[in-house]
Specification:
The complex is a heterodimer of chains A (about 110) and B (about 110).
Chain A: E1 4-5, E2 10-14, E3 19-25, E4 30-38, E5 45-51, E6 56-59, E7 62-67, E8 72-77, E9 86-94, E10 102-104, E11 108-113
Parallel strand pairs in A: 2-11
Antiparallel strand pairs in A: 1-3, 3-8, 4-5, 4-9, 6-7, 7-8, 9-10, 9-11
Chain B: E1 5-7, E2 10-13, E3 19-24, E4 31-37, E5 43-50, E6 53-56, E7 65-68, E8 75-79, E9 88-95, E10 103-104, E11 108-112
Parallel strand pairs in B: 2-11
Antiparallel strand pairs in B: 1-3, 3-8, 4-5, 4-9, 5-6, 7-8, 9-10, 9-11
Classes of the chains: A mainly beta (about 110), B mainly beta (about 110).
Protein backbone atom coordinates (compact mmCIF):
# COMPACT_ATOMS: atom_id res chain seq x y z
CA UNK A 1 0.00 0.00 0.00
CA UNK A 2 1.71 3.16 -1.26
CA UNK A 3 0.57 5.86 1.15
CA UNK A 4 2.60 8.61 -0.51
CA UNK A 5 2.56 8.76 -4.28
CA UNK A 6 4.51 10.78 -6.78
CA UNK A 7 2.83 9.90 -10.02
CA UNK A 8 5.31 11.58 -12.33
CA UNK A 9 8.60 9.68 -12.45
CA UNK A 10 10.21 12.49 -14.43
CA UNK A 11 9.80 16.16 -15.30
CA UNK A 12 11.74 18.31 -17.73
CA UNK A 13 11.65 22.14 -17.72
CA UNK A 14 13.60 25.00 -19.23
CA UNK A 15 15.95 27.09 -17.15
CA UNK A 16 14.17 30.11 -15.71
CA UNK A 17 10.73 28.56 -15.88
CA UNK A 18 8.68 27.15 -13.03
CA UNK A 19 9.01 23.52 -11.92
CA UNK A 20 5.97 22.00 -10.25
CA UNK A 21 6.34 18.65 -8.53
CA UNK A 22 3.28 16.89 -7.19
CA UNK A 23 2.58 14.47 -4.39
CA UNK A 24 -0.59 12.73 -3.19
CA UNK A 25 -1.16 10.88 0.07
CA UNK A 26 -3.86 8.60 1.40
CA UNK A 27 -3.24 8.47 5.15
CA UNK A 28 -5.36 11.04 6.99
CA UNK A 29 -3.03 10.83 9.99
CA UNK A 30 -0.21 12.53 8.08
CA UNK A 31 0.13 16.10 9.25
CA UNK A 32 3.72 17.00 8.53
CA UNK A 33 5.21 17.03 5.04
CA UNK A 34 8.70 17.53 3.69
CA UNK A 35 10.48 17.74 0.37
CA UNK A 36 13.97 16.39 -0.14
CA UNK A 37 16.34 16.64 -3.07
CA UNK A 38 18.72 13.81 -3.87
CA UNK A 39 21.74 13.62 -6.15
CA UNK A 40 23.16 10.23 -7.21
CA UNK A 41 25.36 8.55 -4.58
CA UNK A 42 24.37 11.13 -1.96
CA UNK A 43 21.81 11.25 0.81
CA UNK A 44 18.57 13.23 0.59
CA UNK A 45 18.95 16.93 1.35
CA UNK A 46 16.14 18.66 3.19
CA UNK A 47 14.51 21.48 1.20
CA UNK A 48 11.34 22.64 2.85
CA UNK A 49 8.55 21.42 5.12
CA UNK A 50 4.97 22.27 5.99
CA UNK A 51 2.65 21.27 8.79
CA UNK A 52 -1.04 20.69 8.35
CA UNK A 53 -1.97 23.91 10.11
CA UNK A 54 -0.65 25.81 7.09
CA UNK A 55 -1.46 25.69 3.40
CA UNK A 56 1.69 27.36 2.13
CA UNK A 57 5.31 27.72 3.12
CA UNK A 58 7.94 29.63 1.21
CA UNK A 59 11.72 29.62 1.35
CA UNK A 60 13.55 31.51 -1.36
CA UNK A 61 12.87 29.89 -4.71
CA UNK A 62 10.97 27.00 -3.10
CA UNK A 63 7.29 27.07 -2.14
CA UNK A 64 5.26 24.15 -0.88
CA UNK A 65 1.48 24.14 -1.10
CA UNK A 66 -0.75 21.81 0.90
CA UNK A 67 -4.37 21.00 0.05
CA UNK A 68 -5.57 18.83 2.92
CA UNK A 69 -9.04 18.20 1.54
CA UNK A 70 -7.53 16.80 -1.64
CA UNK A 71 -4.64 15.13 0.23
CA UNK A 72 -2.28 16.77 -2.22
CA UNK A 73 0.86 18.82 -1.95
CA UNK A 74 3.13 20.39 -4.49
CA UNK A 75 6.58 21.93 -4.64
CA UNK A 76 7.13 24.97 -6.84
CA UNK A 77 10.64 26.01 -7.84
CA UNK A 78 10.90 29.46 -9.40
CA UNK A 79 13.04 30.17 -11.30
CA UNK A 80 14.39 26.73 -12.10
CA UNK A 81 18.16 26.38 -12.46
CA UNK A 82 20.25 23.58 -14.02
CA UNK A 83 21.67 22.82 -10.56
CA UNK A 84 18.14 21.90 -9.47
CA UNK A 85 18.34 18.77 -11.62
CA UNK A 86 17.97 15.90 -9.16
CA UNK A 87 15.45 13.41 -7.80
CA UNK A 88 12.86 15.03 -5.54
CA UNK A 89 11.18 13.05 -2.80
CA UNK A 90 8.01 13.94 -0.99
CA UNK A 91 7.79 12.61 2.58
CA UNK A 92 5.05 12.60 5.20
CA UNK A 93 4.98 12.07 8.95
CA UNK A 94 2.48 11.93 11.78
CA UNK A 95 2.53 14.09 14.87
CA UNK A 96 3.19 17.56 13.42
CA UNK A 97 6.93 17.17 13.83
CA UNK A 98 9.81 15.22 12.45
CA UNK A 99 9.89 13.02 15.50
CA UNK A 100 8.26 10.15 13.74
CA UNK A 101 8.79 7.75 10.95
CA UNK A 102 8.65 9.37 7.53
CA UNK A 103 6.88 7.74 4.60
CA UNK A 104 8.48 8.60 1.28
CA UNK A 105 7.17 8.72 -2.25
CA UNK A 106 9.11 7.06 -5.03
CA UNK A 107 10.60 10.28 -6.31
CA UNK A 108 10.44 12.49 -9.40
CA UNK A 109 13.51 13.07 -11.54
CA UNK A 110 13.66 16.77 -12.39
CA UNK A 111 15.79 17.85 -15.32
CA UNK A 112 16.32 21.57 -15.89
CA UNK A 113 17.62 22.28 -19.37
CA UNK A 114 19.88 25.29 -19.96
CA UNK B 1 31.83 18.41 8.16
CA UNK B 2 29.15 18.65 10.82
CA UNK B 3 26.65 16.53 8.94
CA UNK B 4 25.45 12.98 9.51
CA UNK B 5 28.36 10.62 8.94
CA UNK B 6 27.88 7.09 7.73
CA UNK B 7 30.52 4.44 7.20
CA UNK B 8 31.47 2.56 5.32
CA UNK B 9 30.16 4.15 2.12
CA UNK B 10 30.31 0.81 0.34
CA UNK B 11 30.21 -2.63 1.88
CA UNK B 12 30.48 -5.97 0.12
CA UNK B 13 29.54 -9.16 1.91
CA UNK B 14 29.04 -12.77 0.91
CA UNK B 15 25.79 -14.54 1.68
CA UNK B 16 25.72 -15.67 5.29
CA UNK B 17 28.14 -13.03 6.58
CA UNK B 18 27.33 -10.18 8.93
CA UNK B 19 27.09 -6.52 7.93
CA UNK B 20 27.59 -3.64 10.36
CA UNK B 21 26.64 -0.14 9.29
CA UNK B 22 27.59 2.86 11.40
CA UNK B 23 26.00 6.27 11.77
CA UNK B 24 27.21 9.28 13.70
CA UNK B 25 24.43 11.87 13.98
CA UNK B 26 24.89 15.58 13.59
CA UNK B 27 26.38 17.27 16.62
CA UNK B 28 23.71 17.89 19.21
CA UNK B 29 21.26 15.44 17.65
CA UNK B 30 20.00 12.65 19.86
CA UNK B 31 17.36 11.14 17.54
CA UNK B 32 18.49 8.67 14.89
CA UNK B 33 16.49 7.03 12.11
CA UNK B 34 17.44 4.28 9.66
CA UNK B 35 15.91 3.94 6.20
CA UNK B 36 16.49 1.48 3.38
CA UNK B 37 16.24 2.20 -0.33
CA UNK B 38 15.90 -0.74 -2.68
CA UNK B 39 16.70 -0.17 -6.38
CA UNK B 40 14.09 1.95 -8.17
CA UNK B 41 12.14 2.54 -4.97
CA UNK B 42 11.73 5.28 -2.39
CA UNK B 43 13.17 5.21 1.09
CA UNK B 44 11.47 2.91 3.57
CA UNK B 45 11.58 3.52 7.32
CA UNK B 46 13.24 0.86 9.42
CA UNK B 47 13.86 2.05 12.97
CA UNK B 48 13.92 5.14 15.20
CA UNK B 49 16.25 5.34 18.18
CA UNK B 50 17.23 7.74 20.90
CA UNK B 51 20.26 7.26 23.09
CA UNK B 52 20.12 3.73 24.49
CA UNK B 53 16.47 3.30 23.50
CA UNK B 54 14.61 1.90 20.53
CA UNK B 55 11.53 4.09 20.09
CA UNK B 56 9.95 2.60 16.95
CA UNK B 57 11.15 -0.51 15.15
CA UNK B 58 7.98 -1.16 13.19
CA UNK B 59 9.85 -1.12 9.89
CA UNK B 60 12.54 -3.60 10.84
CA UNK B 61 12.41 -7.12 9.43
CA UNK B 62 11.60 -9.53 12.25
CA UNK B 63 14.71 -11.61 11.85
CA UNK B 64 18.42 -10.96 11.27
CA UNK B 65 18.19 -7.16 11.67
CA UNK B 66 18.98 -5.21 14.82
CA UNK B 67 19.89 -1.64 15.71
CA UNK B 68 21.39 0.14 18.64
CA UNK B 69 22.37 3.65 19.67
CA UNK B 70 24.62 3.37 22.72
CA UNK B 71 25.32 6.09 25.21
CA UNK B 72 28.75 6.55 23.67
CA UNK B 73 29.58 6.06 20.02
CA UNK B 74 27.67 5.78 16.78
CA UNK B 75 24.41 4.07 16.03
CA UNK B 76 24.87 0.60 14.53
CA UNK B 77 22.57 -1.24 12.15
CA UNK B 78 23.48 -4.92 12.17
CA UNK B 79 22.38 -7.47 9.60
CA UNK B 80 23.18 -11.09 10.36
CA UNK B 81 23.42 -13.87 7.79
CA UNK B 82 22.94 -11.52 4.87
CA UNK B 83 21.03 -12.61 1.77
CA UNK B 84 20.94 -11.21 -1.76
CA UNK B 85 17.73 -9.33 -1.02
CA UNK B 86 19.54 -7.23 1.59
CA UNK B 87 21.42 -5.44 -1.20
CA UNK B 88 20.31 -1.83 -0.92
CA UNK B 89 21.32 1.65 0.12
CA UNK B 90 20.92 2.19 3.84
CA UNK B 91 20.48 5.77 5.00
CA UNK B 92 20.71 7.21 8.47
CA UNK B 93 19.08 10.47 9.50
CA UNK B 94 19.16 12.51 12.69
CA UNK B 95 17.20 15.30 14.30
CA UNK B 96 17.80 17.44 17.36
CA UNK B 97 14.37 17.03 18.92
CA UNK B 98 10.89 15.96 17.89
CA UNK B 99 10.71 19.25 16.05
CA UNK B 100 12.63 20.10 12.94
CA UNK B 101 13.50 18.07 9.87
CA UNK B 102 15.47 14.86 9.66
CA UNK B 103 18.91 15.34 8.09
CA UNK B 104 20.38 12.46 6.15
CA UNK B 105 23.82 11.00 5.68
CA UNK B 106 25.13 9.87 2.30
CA UNK B 107 24.27 6.25 2.96
CA UNK B 108 25.97 2.87 2.89
CA UNK B 109 25.64 0.85 -0.30
CA UNK B 110 25.49 -2.80 0.70
CA UNK B 111 26.18 -5.40 -1.97
CA UNK B 112 25.74 -9.11 -1.34
CA UNK B 113 27.71 -11.53 -3.50
Amino acid sequence: DQQVKQNSPSLSVQEGRISILNCDYTNSMFDYFLWYKKYPAEGPTFLISISSIKDKNEDGRFTVFLNKSAKHLSLHIVPSQPGDSAVYFCAAGEGRTSGSRLTFGEGTQLTVNP
Amino acid sequence: NAGVMQNPRHLVRRRGQEARLRCSPMKGHSHVYWYRQLPEEGLKFMVYLQKENIIDESGMPKERFSAEFPKEGPSILRIQQVVRGDSAAYFCASSSTYEGPQHFGDGTRLSIL
